[in-house]
Hints:
Blueprint: H1 6-17, E1 29-34, E2 40-43, E3 49-55, E4 67-73, E5 79-83, E6 91-96, E7 102-113, E8 117-129, E9 134-138, E10 144-150, E11 156-173, E12 178-194, E13 201-205, E14 209-214, E15 219-225, E16 234-240, E17 246-253, E18 257-262, E19 268-273, E20 282-288, E21 294-303, E22 306-315, E23 321-326, E24 337-342, E25 349-354, E26 361-366, E27 389-390, E28 401-408, E29 412-420, E30 425-434, E31 437-444, E32 451-459, E33 462-470
Antiparallel strand pairs: 1-26, 2-3, 3-4, 4-5, 6-7, 7-8, 8-9, 10-11, 11-12, 12-13, 13-14, 14-15, 16-17, 17-18, 17-20, 18-19, 20-21, 21-22, 22-23, 24-25, 25-26, 27-28, 28-31, 29-30, 29-32, 32-33
Amino acid sequence: MKNITPVFLAGFLIILLNHSSYGQPIGLDLLWEKEVDVETMEFTPDGNFLLTGGKNTELNCYPYTCGQIKVWDVADSTLLLSIGGFQTGLTNDIDISSDGQTFVTGHGSVYCSAFSGCNRDRAGQYEFGINGAQLYADNNPDGIIYSIAYSPNDSIIAAGTGYNNSGHITIYDSQYNPLRTLLGHSSRTTALLFTNDGQYLISGGYDGYIRIWNYHNGAIVNYMQHGTYINGGVDLNLAISPDGQYLASTGEGYNLTIKIWKISDGTLLHTLPVDVPHEGGGSSLVEFSPNGLYLANGLAVFNGPGWYGRIRFYEVASGELVRDYIDSLGSPVSGGVRSVAFSSTGNDFFAYSVGYGNSSRLRLAITDLDLTTLTGIGGVEEHTPDKFVVFQNYPNPFNPTTTITYYLPVADEIEITLYDVTGRKAKDLYFGKQASGYHSIQIDGSGLNSGVYFYSVRYQNAVETKQCILLK
């Protein structure tokens, strides 16, 4: 990893890209771009690398679809690793372990012909080391793997399938011994996310439903309906807020919408219409910014002569649209945003992909929005609270440090203590008098074991306690 900061990148590479004649986004500055097809992407936890997966355009696999996985150096855009050949199917999903040392991938697509009808093509489920070493391979899973996810402590892997109207979910242990099969969603399960505490699995699929599972016993704890094809509810895309309290959903179809739910009870908090013309339908995806203040929405909508791409940022607390960037690669034939990812390492840049096949681009862009300053879902309130408030720590889960933010209405003594799951004191974090206003303190878990902890903030006659998770 070269020691090049994003500031240097911005000062150097943006100058080069602004002289490119290829269609550039409107309103965004690019740090770098690459010509590669990207269906899914994710940053490693340390922010040093970006993993992408999609169609392999370097091989002539016609009439089938080959897949590829690539690992990029974020600082200078160097391609460090490329995985994929004629035997690798289309890459549908990637998830990276909490320590950034391994990643899992899901593959496959449907091939249809007049002679043989429709058949699944090169479905597969794999695990690799970050160096490219293959650790696990299933070249004949029971269906195309549309979604795949690690649990927060990497002890469980969930894989969502689809084929012949079956979209079941298989739960594996870390050695890929199958533990349980969940009913999943009709046709295909397109999204899988574990809750931040690792207790539940959230799924979404072609049927437009969101299900919250106790994957230990297979019970459905709750379910919500995003919609149907008529209101943008098929092939759902899901995102969990950094504090683990909220879920965003969106999908494909007509009359696209974004919905934000409270995970604990399924309460619908916001319905955000995607007010971009899409008379031919479209697809929508969502991702929370690292601080939870904004929700990014990537769009591929068909209107008039072809496909158009947009990247929009909503303020989560109010639902207000605060930024709207256009990127159709300069041509409506090629346009359409297909994936968005954030790095959680304190930078205001994000990655996204736009276009299809040989006309696609992977782009690292920077926005004027503050994506990383610590806030809750709605940010630290712009007005001054009139009472004692303790916010959820961020990041959570964490390794090895995380930050607690709190507000004191008047100056007084405060005591902050960290306890383990048995109630025993693990660490004294702070004791003393502080002025009124917002304060932050860091938890350093370097000397602690992985597990669930509780931080207790005592102020006057009040005590606020919240859960945090240390994953090493």
